[in-house]
Specification:
Elements: H1 4-15, E1 17-19, E2 25-27, E3 39-40, E4 48-51, E5 54-61, E6 67-75, E7 103-107, E8 110-114, E9 121-130, H2 132-140, E10 166-175, E11 178-179, E12 184-190, E13 200-201, E14 206-209, E15 215-216, E16 218-225, E17 228-229, E18 232-233, E19 238-246, E20 254-255, H3 256-259, E21 262-265, E22 272-277, E23 282-289, E24 294-299, E25 305-309, E26 316-324, E27 329-336
Antiparallel strand pairs: 1-20, 1-27, 2-19, 3-6, 4-5, 5-6, 5-8, 6-7, 7-19, 8-16, 9-14, 9-15, 9-19, 10-11, 10-12, 10-16, 12-13, 17-18, 21-22, 22-25, 23-24, 23-26, 26-27
Amino acid sequence: MKTRATQLILFKILMSITVYSNAQTVSDYENLSLNADSYWEGSDLSQGFNSGNAFFTNTFDLTWGGYWSEGFAYSNMKDSTTAGFTNLYSARTASGYYNSANYAIGMDAAVIHLKNAAKGGIVNGMYVTNSTYAAISMLQGDAIGKQFGSIYGANGDIDGTQGKDWYKLSITGFYNNAPINDTVDFYLADYRFSNASQNYIVTTWEWVNLESLGNLDSLIFHLSSSDNGDWGMNTPGYFCVDDFTTMDSPLLVENHFKKNLFAFYPNPAGDQLNVSFTSSNYTFISIRDLAGRELFKENIENTDKYKINVSGYPSGAYIIEVSNSDHFIERTIFIKN
């Protein structure tokens, strides 16, 4: 079995890369026409919709009067307070990312096919949040889904979770018609913290970085939860997406240690991380944990030195990443004592 030190060394070699792209396309869904406070669920049987360099698949089942049964829908609904299935097409944020109008809603096993310049290239990531339906169900409980944090299921029986509930979005994909080996996980809710004040249900738009998946032709999204019953997952299986962003070029890898375009000290770090740059062309600096969650991001234009307060970070390994307006990204690892 590899030691922790060996794992960190291997991870450092893997992550200490430079990625460069000539173009970037954002699927923001604003190209899709909707009446005010409405949605599209596929009843025109078009089997999906295009935005940016991506096709978002959809299946509309004509039985039982017709209903959205697979894939994605899109919406500009603003209802962040009404509980239940009748409010299926609303985001908990009451708008798209950065108060934009339109956003997409996905369900388990939803698929995105990349097209044009994006096909076979890198997906930078996307913004994700909960649907109103899922968020309120987890917060309050309903006839099927439990209240997260409770030791009881919706049926009133002790469910064995001890209140350590979670709701997870997992993203993987395909390249050259073969499944890739990597998955990115993002917790839409997590009640497993020893300090209950850290428990959360996502109610804001959060960036999910997907660059680690490598070159892709398509992506597939899976939902899972700690709350399950005889018929599967009890938590409403929906999530919302905005600004799905493709790099529109394959992954290009260069050796970070030959570039040395930024440096930092001390490593391991105590309360403060000092960063210096050999170029003033960088626009952003960010820190992520090893699960890819963004913990810090700041604009650093026209800056050659920067200090980051890391005193509140738990001990462990973190990814420090810098980027510029041409989507050039350099990243490496630092250790927090």
